[in-house]
Amino acid sequence: MNATATDLTALLELFWHPVCTLDELDAAAPHPLRVRLLGRDLAIARTADGGHLALGDRCVHRSARLSVGWVDGDRVRCAYHGWTFGRDGRCREIPSMPDGPIPERACVPGYEAVERYGLVWVRLDGRADTCIPAHPAVDRDAAQPGTMRIVTGEPYTWPVGGPRRVENFVDLAHFAWVHDGTLGRRDEPVPPLPTIRREDGEMRFEFDPPDMDVDDSALFGHSEYRMPMPLTVSIEFWLEHGAYRHLWMTACPVDLATSRCFWTVSRDDDLDGDDAPHLAFQAIVLEEDEPVVCNQVPPELVLEPGFEISVKTDKVSIEYRRWLAELAAALAAGGPAAVRASLDAASRPTPVSVRGVLTST
Fold this sequence. Notes:
Elements: H1 5-12, E1 16-21, H2 22-28, E2 33-37, E3 40-46, E4 52-56, E5 70-72, E6 75-77, E7 84-85, E8 91-93, E9 110-116, E10 119-123, H3 136-143, E11 149-152, E12 156-158, H4 162-169, H5 175-178, E13 197-199, E14 202-207, E15 222-228, E16 232-238, E17 244-255, E18 258-267, H6 276-293, H7 315-334, H8 336-343
Antiparallel strand pairs: 1-10, 2-3, 3-4, 4-9, 5-6, 6-7, 7-8, 9-10, 11-18, 12-18, 13-14, 14-15, 15-16, 16-17, 17-18
């Protein structure tokens, strides 16, 4: 399928995306926090009952942004004329008309919002029953509290689409060139071709890096990649000295050409040690990636076959693009239920093609 930007947007609306940290939300209080998701401006707030709401950031009365208003109990009150809106987006009060009636059309878009991993997640379209991506390090620590050190990195926004940001994380051939001496070696430019499988709505594969001398803080060793569709990468590392490390990233689609990345690094060793070296290593990797990744033209991922030339060492991105296109096609043909069915499909190895990014050999 030749998936268009509209197709991809409609697909992404079915999934949960993080839009802010809890610290960012608290810093904005008592005002809602203004965020942007898939081209929509939203006002995010924690309500008095401890829940969260996500509303379209425009009052239907005189178009003031609700994010310059304030939280009032379980509602948001517009700063211009005091209208209040509940979690479902319906107007609950018009102070200048205390006896009503409240017009039926007096409502703003209201979206699902929940808290997980210290982030607020929003889903614009809930018809596909999708799940928030798993976080293996959090799950490990929940099973045995105190066994993991989970460190949250500073979110960053790049002028590149979420799918391209995800592809960069799993592009095995770029390690030798962009990360020479950090994650790869230019004298070993041919990466192994992994066996890719689909399982529980994720793409999964394993990777062994080349032999290199690296710092103890490096995320470097036998790694198992999990890619919860559509915009999350979770990598588990087993280092030579036996330590377990984990890197987790979700690329929130601010729009199709911009992503805001939320991420953590975790470890089961040196639990009381300094976090700075572990964050510093990731800073090096990001500094190496940014000038390349942020200069892809266009910044959006184009799923049209033949738009870019792929070779067999692009296997991971080929399969990622194939599944995105399949999900978009499923939505167009069978609606949200068909997307859910594709995510639930049984595990299976997938073939690699060098003739086009979306075709099979």
